[in-house]
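TL;DR need structure tokens for one chain.
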Amino acid sequence: MELDEYLPVLQRTNTRFADAAAEGVLAHGWRARVPGCPGWTLADLVWHLAAVQHFWTWVVRTRAADPSTYVEPARHPDDELLGYGLAQSAELETVLAGADPAERVWTWAPRQDVGFVLRRQTHEAVVHTVDVEQVRGDVRPIPAAVGLDGLDEWLEVVVPGVFPDGPPETAHPVVFHAVDADAERTLFPGSRPFPIAALTGTAGDLLLAAWRRVPLEVLTVDGDGLQAAAMIELVELR
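>> reply
TL;DR here they are.
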């Protein structure tokens, strides 16, 4: 995806998240469990995304050089969460729209600019929107370009963040083949001469498998599926 594509995707995804959350509350209540986030309720999920967006809004608005002066918001009551979440999404979209992607800001990754925040927050919202749709039992497909870019971000940013010194000794390559994007990507390339398995599916399903939101059974697995799952599990979620 190009830089100018992220904000429209984020805006559409934030709207989709809010709508799905409201429908989830009406259908199942705030205590409904979130399958993709073990131990979380729907209230926890809505609060989490709102709090994350609050933080990154502050980073971009203040052009923060470090997060030491950030003040976390107090947890809001459940009946205020939908409104608070909508407000945080709107603020994040506004500050990102008004910032140069090349401007320097603090991030937890080697890339230290607004463009990193724009990409990371887009995919944060994409994955959590699937989380809330799973509560409703009505998950919409992720567009191929968004899914592939999200998989790229997982491989380029998240995996090196977990393994800054390179793949662990136990690593084996796993190939991801996105049929709707006609693309292949590899987890832990070069760690062994041959991949332990190849996973084939839509880019969106591959992204969700990488983030452990769907089991590998939704994909076509060529090779050792148990070992492929173990390789993905090495990338600890934070």
